[in-house]
Every structure is written in C-alpha cells, then in structure tokens.
Recover the amino acids of this structure.
C-alpha cells in the first residue's frame, strides 16, 4: 500500500480530483437500490459523496487523518472515521451499500481477501467496486504500485449474486475502470 503521504497529498488535491459524473453515478445508483445507509471505504475527502443530500445516512472511512479531517469539513452532516479497509469499524450487516473506488488497486495481493471479507461482512444488501481492471491482475503502475483488479474473480467464493460486471463508460470514468455490483444473498 502506498505511504500515508501519498494519500495525504491526494486528499489535499481533492478539488482537482472531483469527478462530477462519477459522484452523480454513485448517488443515483444508491437511490435506485433504495440504500438507506451508504459506506464508502477509502473515501478520501468525500468527493464521491458530495452529491448526496445532507439528510442521507452516509459514512466514509479512510486511512488518512488529513483526508478524514477534510471530509468532515466538506460534508459535516455525514460520518467519517480514520480506519483501514482490512478492519472496517462497522457491525456485521450494518450498511445497505458498501463500496470502493480505486482503492483495491493499491492493496498488495496479501490484503485483498481480508478487504473483500470486510466489505462482505459489513454489507447488508449491496456492494460495488469501481477499480482499474486487469484480467490477470498484473501491475499497471509504479510509484505507487498499482494493480489492475478483476473483482468478479474475487467475489466468486462469496454468497453473492453478481448483478453487473462492466467497464465504466468513458464519459463517467475516463480511466479503464470496471464496475462490479453485487447483491448479498
């Protein structure tokens, strides 16, 4: 996983990293799934959550204290905590929708199963991942090390229904990301 300084720098540039179309997609998806409470794992400064109404039950976690401080300032009506994807501080089956976006790409292989276990554990209904895709999960970037993920493959041993596993449209996500939506059974 990249050094904490990388994530602090990413959070500092949150205004430059904001993708309106992505935030709209995530909000509209949560509404269409009738998710009453939403958790973003790896939320940084909260960009993907900006378009949710203030009265929404939205939470986020991130390993960067700076990111969480910024998220709390940017979205004071929502709940944010410093935490790691391998130890999500939520009860079992406590959120309707848990999601990641370009978080699992930065995890070393040894942490992927624990991260997926945690997403499955906290979700009551739905999980989605938007991650840079690679069929064979090869390294796709350096500094920090980045790996393409085939999330469908990682979810095959869980009691889930794969609702969608498609490439994101380039107008929503210009990067080569894959959207994997799961319904917990």
């Amino acid at each position: 996983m990249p050094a904490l300084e990388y994530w602090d720098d990413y959070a500092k540039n949150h205004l430059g990293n904001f993708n309106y179309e992505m935030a709209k997609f995530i909000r509209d998806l949560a509404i269409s799934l009738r998710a009453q409470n939403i958790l973003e794992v790896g939320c940084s400064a909260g960009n993907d959550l900006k378009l949710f109404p203030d009265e929404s039950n939205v939470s986020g976690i991130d390993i960067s204290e700076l990111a969480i401080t910024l998220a709390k300032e940017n979205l004071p009506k929502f709940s944010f905590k410093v935490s790691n994807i391998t130890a999500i501080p939520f009860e079992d089956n406590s959120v309707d929708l848990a999601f990641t976006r370009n978080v699992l790409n930065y995890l070393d292989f040894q942490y992927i199963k624990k991260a997926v276990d945690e997403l499955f554990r906290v979700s009551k209904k739905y999980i989605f991942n938007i991650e840079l895709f690679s069929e064979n999960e090869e390294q796709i970037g350096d500094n920090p090390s980045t790996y393409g993920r085939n999330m469908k493959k990682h979810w095959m041993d869980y009691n889930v229904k794969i609702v969608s596993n498609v490439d994101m449209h380039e107008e929503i996500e210009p990067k080569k990301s894959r959207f994997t939506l799961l319904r917990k059974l």
Summary: The chain has a mean pLDDT of 96. Residues 4-184 form a domain with the Rossmann fold fold (CATH 3.40.50.150).
